[in-house]
């Protein structure tokens, strides 16, 4: 190998060498972190909600005018009866919020009444005995709510004391990592509730919460307010039909209501798409930035090497005259690029880790996996070799007779 | 050592064919010191580049050290250049980014020589050209004469059987030229075959034999008196 003379020669081309090495370093630092962010976003995007998403429709209903709690209770019961009878509907229930909708309630849970720091934070979903079958939630322990568990709750009241609750497995594992959750009691606000069931998974209304995306609690309440969400599970192949027929049936039943044009009737697919729009946008933006940066770096390498090949035509001719084969010239430029690339990559690894640490402290990002840095380093070295190949091949075709030409 | 029979070199464009060498015949014996003279554009340098396998030829035969070179591939030609031929160029052709030591090392590395042997050869050849103390200097830090001596050291280090010199003193003043020529004669005495292209009659006179090229052909001056008027330098070279 001719590493030593190449390094010696590079000392005479410091500006170009340093420029490309720094470009490689910055690209590595940014691309590693960007890919890491993309990976996190994509992981988030592909998290299962635990729901039978393909068959779910959410209707946001707002009553016109004011009514008392009892009237709201009766209107809601009539609506649910109407929806459940509708052709194509498998089941329906009313709630304050659904997963990924972006709005809902959260509370803290304590294992002991006098505990200062909460044991866990949880999303609160108002539910009834139809909730599990409507959402398609899988009960993995204990039992579902019975009709006699369900109690009305006025919007004016604080959260009533739920005697029984159902929690997700993620929350159960967090609260009781070593024992069965069913039968245990927890403090929700200041009231003791007994866990009667555990569902496999149910995402919270919010994406990217620091306390976890699956710590949810079902409480057996029917919220009596002017506004509520009806969640409908359709039979297979019926979502489009029910999406049109359900609001019509509700209006036919009672016209004194508003179902907003926008987001009033939505399939769960739409809710999911809206919930992750910013994540998807960010992932795409990061992806574009990566591609642009890599392209600029590759173009920089092609440009500089082409310039060097042009500048060193005579020198290449002399080397050929002195016995260098085409392969020797090709390997000279590839090795030269590899050495610059390795310098850039070493600096880039430090920068990538530094940038990540800064983001960890500043934006609560996770620590960058070293595999990303290593894979990025290898990818950039390969990109460099790919970029340098065309000018290096051109160099290898310089005729030895160039040595005799006067410049 | 170097034998060309009816060799031709044609440069073709879409509209015109230009013969740089035509029916070119030359036979340089092992250990000879031949000076090649001729007016500008006569084909001297083309002859030298073909002789040094820097360029291919269009027709005829060329035997170098007994090998017919027209069928050799690029790698084989590179190997012969590296192992059998030493070049001395008018413009020295040192690599400006490398110091004297590294410059001399270039052909030895291409030969795949081990580090210790390379070092020995480099130091020996530097000593022979009187530049041992300048091993770490860069070409730009040396005078023209010193640079040419480094180029000679680079050629010497490879122990070439054939030394091809293209106007080796063309860029040097008289005193430096003399030193360089003495070195070339020294190398000749050690057994190398030397072919030197030159304009300089004094230089040509130091060779054992002069070959004159006009219009891409070797001219026997004794049989072509009409060229004497144009090729006075060469004629002078022959009579000396």
For the largest sheet of chain A, list the strands in their spatial order.
3-4-10-7-9-8
How many distinct beta strands of chain B? 10
**What class would the helix/strand composition of chain B place it in?**
alpha/beta
The number of distinct structural domains of chain A comes to 2
In N-to-C order, the SSE pattern of chain A is HHEHEEEHEEEHEEEEEHEEHHHHH
Question: What Rg of chain B, in angstroms, do the CA atoms define?
Answer: 18 Å
* CA(first)-CA(last) distance of chain B: 25 Å
Q: How would you describe the shape of chain B?
A: globular
Q: Using the alpha-carbon principal axes, give the shape of chain A.
A: elongated
Structure description:
The complex is a heterodimer of chains A (407) and B (240). With 407 residues, chain A is α+β, with helices and mostly antiparallel strands. Chain A has 2 domains: 3-45 and 278-404, no CATH class; 66-255, no CATH class. Chain A has 11 helices and 14 strands. In chain A, strand 8 (185-188) and strand 9 (191-199) form a beta hairpin. In chain A, 41% of the residues are buried. Chain B is an alpha/beta fold. A 6-stranded mixed sheet of chain B has the order 6-7-8-3-9-10, with helices on both faces. The A-B interface holds A 2, 5, 8-9, 11-13, 314-315, 318-328, 399-401, 403-404, 406 and B 45, 48-49, 52-55, 74-75, 78-79, 81-83, 87, 89, 91, 93, 95-99, 102, 105-107, 109-111, 154, 158, 166.
